Amino acid sequence: MYDVYKIREDFPILGREVYKHPLVYLDNAATTQKPRVVVDSIVKEYYSVNANVHRGVHYLSQLATELHETSREIVRKFLNAHSTSEIIFTRGTTESMNLLAYSFGEAFLKDGDEVIISVMEHHSNIVPWQILQQRKKIVLKIIPMNDKGELLLEEYKKLFSERTKLVSVTHVSNVLGTINPIKELIRIAHEYGIPVAVDAAQSVPHIPVDVQDLDCDFLAFSGHKIYGPTGVGVLYGKEVLLEQMPPYQGGGEMIQSVSFEHTTYNTLPFKFEAGTPDYVATTGLAKALDYCTTLGMENIALHEQELTRYAMDKLNQLGDIRIFGEATEKDAVISFQVGNIHHLDLGTLLDRLGIAIRTGHHCAEPLMRFLGIEGTARVSFALYNTKNEIDTLIAGIERVRKMF
Ligand code: PMP
Questions:
Q1: CB of 28 closer than 6 A to ligand 1?
Q2: Of 18, 100, 223, 397, which one is least surrounded by beta carbons within 10 A?
Q3: Would you say the CB of residue 96 lies under 6 angstroms from ligand 1?
């Protein structure tokens, strides 16, 4: 049984008030709240273990290293990766995508080569490729979508050419909530012999993701969006590709030996992990993943999808509301506009009622342009949200509407 009220007790912040109202936190696509096990692990590690990893002969360093590397194994298992060599710790999805664009770009892309992305990408899967364009004159090709917010597969197939070198696409849109048919997108790309990178920032926290089943070549996600600490994330990559890619940053940890004449690099995954990692955050991330595994990702997905359906129904019943993203396969994100109330006004007034939502372009300006809008209000759900909270949101929107 999925007992959401019992689960909520694991998240102390959910018990607080905002402007004398019980907090209704519906900004989970931006970041999620942390269960006690995650925060406790951070405190415990700083109080009783803290030492730099990998380099020390002393007891605490070895203990910290063991925790850090055990976390890598927990991430591997969570994604069902083949080996821990394929799990690179980063600061988050953004850094993962920058690492990928830099290093894959260096290894595999020449002037005139093409990378396929989609119209619904977050800036972190657009701008790193544009930065690469300043070094190499690569071409970005864009998969379009229909009015419901679903990618057009037939158009996607037409984008491939002999210059295509990579597809880099989001699994779940942080604006539309669309769950893209990622397995199919990957299968098609592989038919052309092209590798695929997946921005899984909005999928790994919400639905089961198995990298071997998807057969993706790269996959990125952020710890803070899956109940883990800020400042830690992951880039998964197939070993055969990562082996051929150069380091992203230089420094300690990523080398085997250094001389002024010649430096050799460390083995995977350390080649991509220059400097002291946030080893406390990796432990916290592992605790968060274990927490989700205990609840069951399938159960979390079912709960959130029920919330999404419930909220979609309730919002639609309000009338005079425009919802962006009505894909058949939709995850726990709903973007909308109410009448002609500016999204910023709506967000600000709901905040006064203790209801936290997101407003703006959601780091997807090209998508906003495609939709012909400036921004939206957005609610996004997590494993601890309830139907009661959605009722509070709806009542809040009605109240704001009366004020206008
Ligand atoms: N991609 C998507 C789809 C996202 O929703 C986000 C965060 N909003 C990111 C990438 C970037 O994640 P982060 O800021 O944690 O690096």
A1: no
A2: 18
A3: no
